[in-house]
Amino acid sequence: MTDSQPLSAAPPATRPPALDRIRVGSAPDSWGVWFPDDPLQVPWQRFLDEVAEAGYPWIELGPYGYLPTDPGRLAQETGSRGLKVSAGTVFTALHRGPAVWDETWAHVSQVAELTRAMGARHLVVIPSFWRDDKTAELIENPELTAGQWRDLAAGMERLGREVRERYGLDIVVHPHADTHIDGEENVARFLDATDADVVNLCLDTGHYAYCGGDNVKLIETYGERIGYLHLKQVDPEILAEVVRDGMPFGPAVRRGVMCEPPDGVPALEPVLEAAQGLGVELFAIVEQDMYPCPPDQPLPIARRTRRFLRGCGA
How far apart, in Å, do the first and last CA atoms of the chain sit? Predict the structure, then answer.
């Protein structure tokens, strides 16, 4: 090269797409919290301290009663740490028909009232399990009858209307392993049977992959029904063992089936890009099921996961 020859400019660094419609947060689940009170779980104050330290501005309430249920106190505790609430979570068994409505509503109204008081707009609805998480004992038939599907759809629509009318919240139904709303076939059946105006989906990327579903395909097919995201990955090798052994979800989690991104499936980059392409604002709340876990385990994982998501543009 002679002195008269210009130096070649270095190629620009490749930047991830800006996911400006995705609001990232985390949840008590990522700290090993499954129950309102359990000696194996970290105290709620530690969860709030560490989720803020890890760089997440949004959280979910988790199991009702884990965080303070007095709105004034919870607002003070979250606000002092720069945190905001994106959603509450409820558990339902609406496929059992109108007989369970009063019991369901008693639970839902408690959570919805606190969720509204915290300024959130979503209620995540998780269907009941058909087998016991610990013993693997069958609680119900894994397959619903046609009548139970009708009760499930009608009950969810009623829940969506009542929650919106009374509390101004939108319900988002969470497909979940070991429930009747799980993989591609049952999720599609549920969505086709319900009114999009009042019932939409919380797509949990890990649970949907755990049950054999293609997350990007679901977003592309039912994009207008995706109202909320949970970001999670599964370890495919451990999942193969879980499927082979017919293992319930709880023991599968203890075996480590839900793993730290980006080590598992589905790849989160295309999922986030597909969600961004929907053209609506979406919460994407990180959950890494790991109950129970050592108390010092969650924070380093949360930091690394937040750094990974920033690298994805979120």
Answer: 42
